[in-house]
Every structure is written in structure tokens, then in C-alpha cells.
Amino acid sequence: MASNSFGQCFRITTWGESHGPAIGVVIDGCPAGIAITLDDIQQALDARAPGQHALTSPRKEPDRAHIYSGVFEGVTTGTPISIIIYNQDINSTHYTPIKEVLRPGHAQYTYLEKYGIYDYRGGGRASARETACRVAAGAVAKKVLAGTDIEVKAYLHEVGGIQLDAPDFEYLSTSHLGCAHQDFEAQLTTLLATCKQSGNSIGGVVAFQILGVPVGLGDPVYEKLEANLAKAMMSLPASKGFEIGEGFASAKWSGADYNDQFDVDNARIVLTSNHAGGTLAGISSGQPITGRVVFKPTSSIQAAQRSVSLLGEKTDFQLPPGSRHDPCVAIRAVPVVAAMCFLVLVDAFLLNKLARCHE
Asked: Which of 128, 137, 234, 291 sits a CA distance of 20 to 30 A from 12?
């Protein structure tokens, strides 16, 4: 498995499994002289952590980050930054009775076919537990961009058909279900409670907005900004769709209506709309970068499902009592989507310094 790294100039490599002793990330290419503290990382991790709401996974992981290298006296040294998060609330006994049955919607079948081995405990490497590493790295990326105007916001846009259209992008932690408004949260709480009682799950959509992006970030043709954002989001567990700007709705528009036209305001070139979502030809246009990420319903559900044993025998699959899962993975994906935005933007920002010589 040689595909655990992301980025070029600012490159991260994550490691670890859901029920292993620890998970972690190594960040290579972070510039020296960036002020970073454990609190900076911990605040981001706290927003993603499970067990903060009755309708998210009850797994109690404090997700305490430990910086093992790359930071000296509160400042990055330019050497690889190693961050370790020890797993604590591990109970692998729930998975022993079902280890010989293929779990519908999970990585077990494809991992076994590809590698011949699979860590059945909580999904192993394929678990969303890995995203804590991305969030930790995203916190460092955010600090690198602190001297710019770049700001990333994300929020829960849709869950189970309930949609919030107001684009205020207020981000709240998962203790508030990542919602932007209390009325939306009240609807969502009722929906998730009903879903949980029936032993089922639902999908959702996370929206993001990146503000203050200068013109020029992104490198054609294979490092386009939206292409790297798409790769970042589609690498997340349970993600099934990505769009930028008007996205799939663009197919219904005419060119005359869709094109973002140019104008001049106070001697500055401006765009009169933002249907493209903040990029032109894969390069940031100076407009806000807007997009959405679709997450499928949580694969782990209490309801019985048809499956096959590892011996090829037809059987029913059902999670044992006490299994711990999110009824909707999109809720805790909000800070992860934000983290991936920061990782893409910091890489593009550093790459842009190599684009041309400046006097």
C-alpha cells in the first residue's frame, strides 16, 4: 500500500489503523519559522472527535496530539513534523463474531482480494479514524497560511433530504452537529434519532467556501486547483461526489447565462458572478472558491443484511450489540473537509512561489 501521501511541496503521509496502538501523520515541506502549538492542533481535533453528541459515534477518543519532531520552542524547524495520536477507547471484541463475514459497504472484500489480508477491527486502515491525521495536518497548513487572507469555512449543507440553503457558512463543532442554524439542527436531531432507532443510516452533503484566495493558485494541466480539491475530497472515506461552483447543475445552463463576465471596479478587473466557483482553467480567479462534497449513508447499520462468508456461503450479516457508529458520517466530516481545503491551498500557495521570478 504505497499511496498514503498527499501533496507536493507540503506533503503529508498518514499511518495507523482504527484499533492499532496509535495513528499519526508526518508532514514534510513545512517552511521553517511557523509558530505552532499543541493547542492549534488540538482545537481542530476536538471539532472532529467522536462522542460529543448523542447522535454521533459514542466512541470516546480524546485525540490528544503529540508532536515528536519538527517543532522547537514553538516554531517549525523546516524538518519533518511528526504528530502521533494514541488510540484509547478500543474494544475489538465487537468485531470478533463477524470477522468471517463480508461486511456490506465496507473495504473488507476489496482489501482481501487486493492484498490477501484485512484488519477487520473497526475497518483497520480504511476506517474514518484515519481522518484525524488529516485534521492535525490541516491545522499546521492553516498556520502556514495565517499570514495570508485565505480563510476556509465549511458546514453541513444537506442530510437525508433536509437542505439548508442559507450560505452563511457558520461552522460549529460536532457537539452541535456541524449545523449553521438551530432550526436545521432541531430537524436533523429528529431525523437522526428516528434513523438510529430503526437501525439505519443516511447520507449528507458538506459545503465549503474558501475566501481571500489570490489570483493565480493552481498549476495546469494536471495540478489544477479544482482537480486537487476533487482528489482531496474523493480520498475521504464514504465520499461519493464532488462539485465546484454550480457543479452538475452547469449542464442545464446556457453559456450566455453561465459565463462569469468581466468588469472594472476602481481600476481593478472584477468578475460579475461566480458560477465557476472561483477558478478559471484550473487557476484561482480571486473569487471565493465554493464546492460541495457528497457522503454516502454510513455502511455500518444495525439492520440485518444479506452477505457471504469468507468461505463463500450465503449468510445474513448483522452487527453485534454494542457496536459504535455514526448514523450519518457527513456530520463529523465537516472539519475534515475544511482540513483538506487547507492542505490543498497551502500546497498550491507554496507551488505558486515557483511559478515565475519576481523582482
From this structure: 291
- Domain assignment of residue 245, yes or no: yes
> DSSP characters for 212-269?
SPPTT--BTTTB-HHHHHHHHHHTSTTEEEEEETTGGGGGGS-HHHHS--EEEETTEE
Residue 262 resides in a domain:
yes
For residue range 257-275, what is the model confidence (pLDDT) as tens digits?
Answer: 999 999 999 999 999 999 9
What pTM, to 2 d.p., does this model score?
0.93
Structural domains of the chain, count: 1
Burial call 215-246: b when 16+ CB within 10 Å, e when fewer = ebbbbeeeebbbbbbbebbeebbbbebbbbbb
What whole-number distance in Å separates Cα of residue 182 and Cα of residue 175? 13
Say yes or no to pLDDT of 325 above 50.
Answer: yes
Domain span at residue 132 reads: 5-352
Distance CA 269, CA 170 (A): 29
Q: What CA–CA distance (Å, rounded) separates 207 from 337?
A: 8
Instruction: Characterize the bridge pairing of strands 162-163 and 75-76.
Output: unpaired
Residue whose grid cell is 490528544: 64
In a domain, 297, yes or no: yes
SS3 302: coil
Distance of CA 325 to the CA centre of its chain: 17
Query: The CATH number of the domain where 225 resides is what?
Result: 3.60.150.10
Task: Compute the residue count for the chain.
Answer: 359
